[in-house]
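Narrative progress, year one. The postdoctoral researcher (J.K.) led the effort to move from monomer predictions toward full complexes, under supervision of the PI. The following entry was the first complex the group processed end to end, covering 610 residues in total.
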Amino acid sequence: MKIKDYSIKSLPYIFLIIISSPIFIGYLWVFLRTFTRSMYGMRPTGGFTLNNWALILKDPILWNLVGNTFILALGLTIGILLISSAAAYPLSRMAFRGRKIYLSLSLILHAFPSVTLLIAIFFVLRWISAIPIFGRGLPLIGGFGYNTLGGVLLVSIAFMLPLGIWLMKGFFDNISWDIERAALIDGCSRFRTWRQILLPQIRPGLAALGIFAFMHGWSSFIIPYTFMVDARTAVMSTYLNLLTSGDRPIDYGVASAVALFQLLPILFFYLFTQKYLLKIFSGGMKGGS
Amino acid sequence: MRKAKKNNVVSTQETLSLTRIRPKITWFWFLLPSSIIMVVFFFIPVILTLLISGTNMSTTTGLTGYQWVGFANYKNLLNYPDTFRKLWLTIRYVFLTLVLFNIGLALLISLITTHIPKKAGAFFRAIWLLPRITPVVIYTFMWQILAAAPPHGIINTLIFEPLGLSTTNLIPQYPFFFIVVVNGFIGTSFGMIIFTSAIESIRKDIMVSSLVDGASTLQRIRYIILPQLRWPLLFATTYQTLSLLTSYEQILVLTGGNFGTEVWALWAFNLALNNYYGNFQYGIGSTIATMLVLIGLILSTVYMRFFKFDELVQEPKIDVL
């Protein structure tokens, strides 16, 4: 009786472990492979080594990529926080004509699959390139046109903006009206109210969206892959894709080390800010796959 | 001199009236940046996609030497034998991923993880979120390793080799299986989160009293929990249908569209932006994209109406009172 009880109770666990095993194994393999010379399936052969790490950490390309990817992630974070919190404020707290239309439109865009627009955006970015200085010729990001980091950044911000606006609007909606009204009656301007009274109150929301945006920018692949011509110098994802795409023999040790290197900040954020992130995933997540 | 003075007066009047108006148009300045971005990266591209689909623009014609061809691209598309094969592939892919993973497995995992101790449940749900937060290239790399031929392939060395089965790279052998599974493992977490929070929000007294009244756990799932999940199920299904139909990032990285895995969205992308031989077909690519854009616009508008978002766009109290 008791043994039967236990076996029934352990059934769900067995099912969960089996069905989740590809995820466990995939992570474990990448982790192990970075520290080994070679592996046969899951079994390390040829002993442990730090060579893979030494190779990639000494590679100037990697640090260039880390810089680019970091600029992209940070730019996306700052851009999305500023633009969406500015847009969400009047949408949440002011009455003006066209407000409903603006909200409905941004909501449609939120559900709309923006990747279908990449072909047309290719042309838009080429037009932006033709603008002097702004298009190409800025330091650090190279401008905002085609084949520049700034262009990739702008498209990334645009694709995340509908989500950002709706999340921010939700956070603004939850602040009590009294504080804001008190500020306005005391003669505070709308701008100052936004900056000094409201933004500090939605700090957890800003943190959640900011972390989400950073992780998104740090992992982004399809936009830099499409709009930056040289995959080697674009961002970490496109570089890893180049290393693993099989046009030439794959160095699994190096590829795994690059992969784990890119994964570390993501896992760090995920472990320590899961509660925040779940709020975004459940609240306004776009379908993903 | 006189004229200048007059002008001066006018301008001061204008500034005066401006300062009077300013409090009312503050919203304009707040909305300006996001409006510019939305116009440049959503509205113009939608129209542009439609326009380009009416041209024969490609690498051969260059970006300026194209001609208007009306609906010729659409007619040609109907005559391609590829068109319907790829459409059928897309439908099978969307349907199977949705039923098996995004809804099926998602429901199963949320039911199981809410019936085992809380910490264990949360642990497995955290594991299942990993595919979504892992950068797509790394995540796909893990599947390539799982499927590769020995000495790397994990499935081959752990399962197929001991059984004495043939051991070659599994992705070219079962490409359809892999695009469904690779996308499904990501898609599962969406439904999982929604269903779990719906299950956890069912009132505790109902949950407990049903067991006290003698219902078994399975009966409780059937008669108490599942009816409560009708709305989340509908939401996840509609939302994921659209995103599966139009997303191709994982397939692009996994197979590049080879081995008969080029779904419609990836086909458009490959034709117009990702041609190996550098012969970019902007016109025909935009034609395919136009159809996806139209499907996207229609479905996302329908969702907005359907899921009662009117409640979300209520008038703000502070300016109305």
